[in-house]
Amino acid sequence: MHQRTIRPLGIVAGAASTVGPMLEDTVEELRAAALAADDATGYFPAMYARVTQRIDQAAAEDRFGDSVGMVDFARSFAGWYLRPRSGVEPIPGCWRAAWDVGADRRLLIVQHLLLGINAHVNHDLPQVVIEAADRRGGLARIRADFDAVNDVLAGILPEVLHDLGRASRWVNLAASAGGGRLFTFSLTAARDQAWRYATRARTLDAAGRSQEAASLDELVRVLAYLVTSPGWPVRWLVPMARRLEDDDPRRVVRDLLGELA
User: What is the reported pLDDT for 19?
Assistant: First the structure.
C-alpha cells in the first residue's frame, strides 16, 4: 500500500491561518508530468497543476473548515493520478482509455481534457472520499470542505478556459455563449455523483468495495469511449473545430499551464 508522507505545516506570518502553502511538491509533480509529455496526455496534468495550486492558496487563506485535512485530501487525490502515470501502480482501465488516445490528433483539446476529468473525477474521486472518510471519522466530517472546492473550481476554470483560447480559437466563443458555465456545472454534477457513489460504497466490506471499484472502472472506461466517439451532430462538428486549434501539444501544454509554464 502506498504510504503518504505528511509534511509539517507552514506558518503564515501575521495571518490568522496556521497553514502556509503545502502542495508545492504536488503542483510541481503535475507540472513536470505535463511538460514531459510529447502528446495530448500532457493537457490534463497542466490544467490539474493550476487547480491544485489554487486549492493550496485557498487552504492557506483559511477558506476551508479544515485546511490541513483539505491539503491532505488534495495530495491523496493527486496521487491517484500520479502513481499510475509514473508506473508505481497498475493503470486503471479508464486511465488507459484516456492515455491510449493521447497521440490521436483528430480529437479536440477539450476532448483530451474531458478524458482526464472523466477518469479522475468519476473514478478516482469516490475512492479518495472513502479513504478520507475512513481516516477522519465519517463522511459528515469532510462534506462541507468537499463542497467548498466547487467554489474554487468556479474561480479557476474560467481562467484556464481563457488561456486555452490561445490554442483553441473556438473555445472562448463557446465560453461566451455559456459553454464555460456549462463546463463548470457539469464538473460540479460529476463531483456530486462521486459523493453519492462514495456514500453507497463506504457501507460495504473490503471485498464489496473492491468489486464496486472494478465495476466503476469499467463504467468510466465506457464513458471515455463516448467522449472520443460522440454522436451526431457533435461528431460532424469536431473536425471543423479541430482546424481552429494549435497542433503542437507542447505549446498547448504551456498555454494550459499559464503562469506555471
Answer: 53
Asked if residue 80 belongs to a domain, the reply is yes
What spatial distance separates the first Cα and last Cα of the chain, rounded to whole Å? 33
C-alpha 184/C-alpha 192 separation (Å) is 12
Write down the pLDDT at residue 71.
97
The strand pairing partners of 168, in sequence order, are 245
Residue 230, phi-psi category: left (phi > 0), alpha (psi -120 to 50), beta (remainder): beta
Tell me, yes or no, whether 50 lies in a domain: yes
Question: CA torsion sign, 186 to 191 to 196 to 198?
Answer: positive
Computed on alpha carbons and rounded to an integer, the radius of gyration of the chain in Å comes to 18
- The pLDDT tens digits for 91-130 are 999 999 999 999 999 999 999 999 999 999 999 999 999 9
Asked if residue 8 belongs to a domain, the reply is no
The grid coordinates of residue 156 equal 479557476
CB 41 within 8 A of CB 12: no
What is the number of domains present in the chain? 1
Domain membership of residue 198 as a residue range: 24-260
Q: Taking every pair of C-alpha atoms in the chain, what is the biggest distance, in angstroms?
A: 57
Does the structure show a pLDDT above 60 at 16? no
> According to the model, what pLDDT value does residue 1 have?
35
Domain-embedded: residue 143 = yes
The grid cell for 94 is 479508464
- What's the pLDDT at 13? 31
Residue 18 has pLDDT above 60, yes or no: no
Tell me the β-bridge partners of 245: 168
* Residue among 133, 134, 135 at smallest CA distance from 143: 133
